[in-house]
Amino acid sequence: MSGSGAQRGIAILGSTGSIGRSTLDVLRRQQDHFRLIALAAGCNRGELASQVAEWRPSYAGLAGVSNDVRWPSGPEVLVEAATHPDVDIVVNAVVGAAGLDATLAALHAGKRVALANKETLVMAGDLVAQAACAGGGEIVPIDSEHSAVLQCVTGRDDGLARLILTASGGPFREWPADRVRSATIEEALQHPTWRMGSKITVDCATLANKALELIEAHHLFGLPYDSLEVVVHPQSIVHAFVEFHDGSVLAQLGFPSMELPILYALTHPQRLPDTGVRRFDPVAAGPLTFEPVRADVFPALVSGIAAGRAGGTAPAVFNAANEVAVAAFLQGAIPFGRISETIDRALDSHAPAPASSVEAVRAADRWAREEARQSVRQ
Ligand code: MG
To answer: Of the N and C termini of the chain, which has fewer Cβ atoms inside 10 Å?
Structure first.
């Protein structure tokens, strides 16, 4: 990324969300290297309008709205933005299963996908790999733990033996189990170290997010589940540990900020100087502590790992049931403890099939959503 190379064209899917806005903050500092080509938002017209006024992209649309009078609208906006001919890198920061088609289309079109939409890999990791292979595209993770692993293995990716992803533990790290089950919406949205959208923040409180991340890591780095572990690290300074087969361990550290993994996903395997990231200070970071996960208090983590191990359509069912349950929790329809129960009911009544086509994955996703909707109504 040094020298006078051409600017790389960027599309941002989910431009008005937390990762989308952080990506724009990064691009504002790196305008010599990148040019914003396409913006796709969900339904936030006001913020999209101000982004368009500032950046003047070639394409802008609203994926979560139909028949908008001003912009292209509807779910196909994501694929249109992702496959725009001037786009080299697609930042996919869409929440949930809605991001899958755009990831597959971008990879088929030979683009780099800087992926924050981990649900895509969870649902259809093998299909995503096939699309990358067929079209010449590539996935580079934005998720901080996976960015950490990638930064540790780049240039030395033989002999990878074990990954340990860190988890902040969420707001209920030290709560007794019965109190966790009846936690309120406000309590679940109090993440101790990261400021993010509400869906992922609830996933961090249930630890479902860490199950999604283990499945994501399995697909990105090709390790079996027995070689993937989670440790609770309340300070969120170490993002992941990578163990090589001689026993040596590397880690990537930094104060919690998504801007560093976003920039790295745009520049990998190179780096660009960036004055916008808070410089690391070991003394200011304070003591770093590590604890085992309390699996008995966070059953969604256990169920998600089991779904990952089962493979096929099970991870798509886990993801879909979790999305429905989290939405119901955020609407006040079910208590916190019912999120994991809703997931388990869907997984228990699902017979996993091979995830051999997008249609098979979509069918499992639809089935699980209906199953979970019925279960939250009871
Ligand atoms: Mg993460």
So the answer is: C
